[in-house]
Amino acid sequence: MKYNITGDNLQFVNVEFNPGEMMYSEAGSMVYMSGNVRMEAKASGGILKGLKRAVSGESFFVTNFHADGGPGLIGFAGQVPGKVQAIDLRGGKNWLLQKSAFLVAEASVDLDIAFQKKLGAALFGGEGLIIQSVTGEGTVFINGCGDFIEYNLQPNQMLKVSTAHVVGWESSVTYDIQSIGGIKTALFGGEGLFVTTLRGPGKVILQSMTLSKLASSLVPFLPRSGSG
Fold first, then answer.
1. Element (DSSP H or E) covering residue 40
2. What does the pLDDT read at residue 227?
3. Residue 183 belongs to what H/E stretch?
């Protein structure tokens, strides 16, 4: 499998893969494919994993892609203006993702759901109780809103992040929610009552925009029905 990521803030991941290899993606992520690529919807991992994905708000099925008779080419893109990034999971790495971050992966990558370990993170973290877990000896591609920035946290190094700006983190990173400070800061600081805390060691990926903020910014420009 070979790939390149093109574009600026409306990015594609363009994947070239050979017969015998397989890619799978969330339903609706494929933008184009060469004529020899065959796709089929399947409950990857069986019915149980399909049900777990459905509970998390994702599609019951994923779409599998196969190349017949020679190398195939596929282009994938996210659902919002933003970035696409590749994560190499080889060597036993395990990443946790907010549930909308998964885009596409090699067949050797296992996509599953995980549960927030702490109730505060589930209730106030912006990602909810259920998140995604990816492991395996392959590459997974994630997408998010706006631009990405990646930090490699050292042991016990902590990063405080505005709610819902965390796209993904290595499983070695501790994820929790913390009160932002006094009542005045919470009410008038513009950042809400809580921030996400990430404590190393491990890598984290943040996004500059969230889908809720993007939607809010568009509301003043949406057509409104007149009173007459």
1. strand 37-42
2. 46
3. helix 183-188
State the pLDDT confidence band at 46, using cuts at 50, 70 and 90: low
Bigger pLDDT: 202 vs 176: 202
Longest alpha-carbon distance in the chain: 65
Domains of the chain: 2-216 (3.60.160.10)
pLDDT digits (tens, 9 = 90+) for 92-108: 999 999 888 999 999 99
Contacts of 222 (CB under 8 A, 6+ apart): none
Instruction: Please give the Cα distance from 228 to 140 (Å, whole number).
Output: 52
Helix (H) or strand (E) holding 214: helix 211-218
Cα Rg of the chain (Å, integer): 19
Rounded to whole angstroms, the Cα distance separating 50 from 40 reads: 15
Residue type, 206: L
pTM (two decimals): 0.84
Question: Edge-to-edge strand order for the sheet containing 194-199?
Answer: 158-162, 194-199, 174-179
Rounded to the nearest integer, the mean pLDDT of the chain is 84
Distance CA 179, CA 28 (A): 37
Gap between the Cα atoms of 122 and 177, Å rounded:
9
Cβ contact 75:31 at 8 Å: yes
Q: At 169, give phi and psi (nearest 5°).
A: -155, 150
